[in-house]
Amino acid sequence: MSRETQADSSTGSVRRRLFLGGLVSTLSIGSLGTLGYATRSPAETLEVRVWLSEEAARYDGVDDRLLEYLDALLGYEYWQLELSYGGVVSASTEDGARVTINGEWPRILAAGALGTRDLDPAADVNLLVTDGQMTTAPTGFALPHVASVGGARYLATLPPFDDLETVLDDGSIHRVVENERPTRTIQILLHELGHALGLEHDHGVAFRNGDAVVATPMLSSYAWDPSYDGDRSRCGTVYPSTDDRERTLSLIFSGCAQRELEEYNGGFSL
Ligand SMILES: [Zn+2]
């Protein structure tokens, strides 16, 4: 059985920044500027737009289901969430990682920002969902403001968000889901979206719930990946041992990640 890992390695942030350097030399600096690299005070609004590839758009209702989940999961009190569906994007590949790694999705957004293409990029996150495979890493990829992920066929089978409500052992209500393909796919989507907003893997946490270990979106399957070398979040939460414990997923960003998001101001230092 294949083991899914996340879209990038623990050196993802370095790789993303190196890649961005290449992107800057490929495109004009001005086109990137219009994608929102200007620094501003902490965001009062968060503009997130979702697009579907041609294959992803073949699944009925996947756009509505995604917006329903993102509306529930990104609706923090510190910003006004402006969530929208951008439409169908024709790309040369359905691979959810490659379409960004090869520069195609960033170039499409840049063309939209420049007005040479009929596509309107959002200020904060531009997420392209494809029907790419979800078995071999990388399955998605992110740059500042830009993200893509595969798995539309699995996302289309997600239950209504409200059906996911789980009462944890301590009595708190959470969104803990089984480590199954559709729920793993939506968590990876959230993981890439988090990267697009500046979050890193160690903003994530893992915690015990009964006999299970729960991993939040930024740590995700790194919680049980022996090659992942972090043992605690950057906020100091030590990760539990996962030996012989059921692996489950939370769709809610950790408190550490949420505090970082609260500081998000629309800019990134390069
Ligand atoms: Zn990652």
From TrEMBL:
<feature type="transmembrane region" description="Helical">
    <location>
        <begin position="18"/>
        <end position="38"/>
    </location>
</feature>
<keyword id="KW-1133">Transmembrane helix</keyword>
<protein>
    <recommendedName>
        <fullName>Peptidase M10A and M12B matrixin and adamalysin</fullName>
    </recommendedName>
</protein>
<dbReference type="InterPro" id="IPR024079">
    <property type="entry name" value="MetalloPept_cat_dom_sf"/>
</dbReference>
<keyword id="KW-0812">Transmembrane</keyword>
<dbReference type="GO" id="GO:0008237">
    <property type="term" value="F:metallopeptidase activity"/>
</dbReference>
<keyword id="KW-0472">Membrane</keyword>
